[in-house]
Amino acid sequence: VSGPGNITVASITVDYVIFVMLLVASAGIGLYYAFSGGRQRTTQEFLLADRSMRCLPVSLSLLATFQSAVAILGAPSEIYTHGTQYWFLGCSYFLGLLIPAHVFIPVFYRLHLKTSYYVLKQALQLLHLSNYVFTQVIYMGVVLYAPALALNAVTGFDLWGAVLAMGLVCTLYTGGLKAVIWTDVFQTIVMFAGQLAVIVVGTHQAGGIAEVWRKAQNGSRISGLDLNPDPLERHTFWTLGVGGIFLMLALYGVNQAQVQRYLSSRTEKEAIMSCYAVFPCQQIVLTLGCLMGLVIYARYGEDSPLDKGYVKSNDQMVLYFVMDVLRDLPGLPGLFVACLFSGALSTISSAFNSLATVTMEDLIKPHVRPMTEARATLLSKMLALAYGLVCLAMAYIASLMGSVLQAALSIFGMVGGPLLGLFCLGMFFPWANSTGALVGLVSGLVMAFWIGIGSFVSRMSASVPPVINATVIPDVGNMTTAVMTTLITPKTRPSGVQALYSLSYMWYSAHNSATVVVVGLLVSFLTGKVCFQNTSNTLIVLPYPRFYQ
After folding, report:
1. What is the Cα Rg of the chain in Å?
2. Which residue range is the domain that position 133 belongs to?
């Protein structure tokens, strides 16, 4: 290890043992559920856990699905670099989870769907499914490769050995949604344990929590309430607390991975309660990430390992800190590595299962002759296996793409906005029609890609790093922190197209969903109104426009 110092062979052995135990336990849970119960013989059991899951495991799985290694590495480095302003994201969690619980879950649950896209008409469905599959496949490769790369850079852990092990274990235990959910529960516990261990030991070595707080205050890392309404400001109360609501709605309201978990609940009430239970869990996760960032600052202050050349980017600094603080405590570095890879495993396995579900239910079944349950279930399992192999291939491609992956992650963060806008258009505006919905969706996607790619290219084209107080801000561009960390720019307000490219990433979801709704309504008015159509007695709560099936 280049910076923290020497680590004994015995310590490394213990760390490897703990890491291997995580992989074995995750695979074991998958195998257990593959060969117990109904043995995944029906698509209902394989894709929706036979609608038998209770509130607690569903809520922890909802949390684990997006608590990936990207967040575990990104949140502490965000706090270390920019301060605690990011903490105000927690203000968005209340409405960001309350609205899905009482607006989206009842609609999806009462229609007895298997995917969130099933209700869309064919043209809309194919367009958004293609977009979803494309971005998920890219994201799977990034999530698989990024923690392995960070681990290899700091510890020398074999890069492709870690990638291969994770990919194969995920493919193995994606033996149905029930296996994925219970493995998520186990991995969530490991994530909490790993983060807590680092925070407790780091705080003790820094002299206690009061000393950590004092050093953070002296270093201007404790941020006040910034009420600046400028949408171009990266992080303010409004971008985090209000813009974050739309981001949460895109993630927890209409995203297929989350909708699939809601639909696996035994009852609609249990699904709603699982959404409620995510709220305190998200607050705990956010707090742990912020505390870890403060502890890292208390140890290094302005004397960053990045400046010394021990690491090449901010997200690697978290693992560097872990190896530095825990190097004399055998097993604890392995525990945090297990925590890090648990985040990746839960995200990837969720992606496998959701991709297999939408491919089977929305792309294959509607276009082939009816098949038996046994054949449909076998095909679903083969799809999950195929996506597992694609994930491994994408991880290899990720190693060759370099900084382009920063754009890929930004694109993944934005595609939820147009989908959110599409569903809001359908649920709340009964006069919207198919033409308006299609044009609105295309407009939202074009706007999302235009702003996202334009913003990325604009940042990358800067030939000289920005300077503040005669101090050069180091380049923190790295694929795992595309959403969490961006360059600090001088306080000169951009104009024209550059102002659009400078829009805070926290507003992307709101901006793109609003584009879909506004354009969709305008086109619907121009092409003719559609009256309310009540096609099902089970859907009385909300409108049911024509561009749904």
Report:
1. 23
2. 15-402
Q: Is residue 366 part of a domain?
A: yes
**Using one digit for the tens of pLDDT, what is the confidence trace for 8-40?**
566 677 877 887 887 788 778 777 876 665 556
Is 531 contained in some domain?
no
In sequence order, which ranges of 35-68 are alpha helices (DSSP H)? Answer: 43-48, 55-66
Euclidean distance between the first and the last CA atom of the chain, given in angstroms as a whole number: 58
The verdict on residue 198 lying in a domain is yes
Once rounded to an integer, what is the mean pLDDT over residues 344-364? Answer: 78
Q: Is the dihedral of CA 126, 132, 134, 136 positive or negative?
A: negative
Burial 379-398 (b: 16+ CB within 10 A, else e): bbbebbeebbebbbebbeeb
Buried b (16+ CB within 10 A) or exposed e, 522-532: ebbeeeeebee
Quick check: 430 and 532 in contact, CB under 8 A? Answer: yes
Mapping DSSP to helix (H, G, I), strand (E, B) and coil, where does residue 472 land? strand
Give domain status of residue 268, yes or no.
Answer: yes
DSSP code for 473: P
> Can you give the pTM of this predicted structure?
0.79
**Overall number of domains in the chain:** 1
pLDDT, tens digit, 9 for 90 and up, residues 485-540:
333 444 577 767 778 888 888 888 899 999 999 999 999 888 875 433 444 333 22
Using CA atoms in the order 218, 224, 229, 235, what is the torsion angle rounded to 10 degrees?
A: 60
Tokens of 320: 């560097």
Amino acid at 344: A
Q: What DSSP line would sit under 190-239, residue for residue?
A: HHHHHHHHHHHHHHHHHT-HHHHHHHHHHTT-S--------TTSSS-HHH
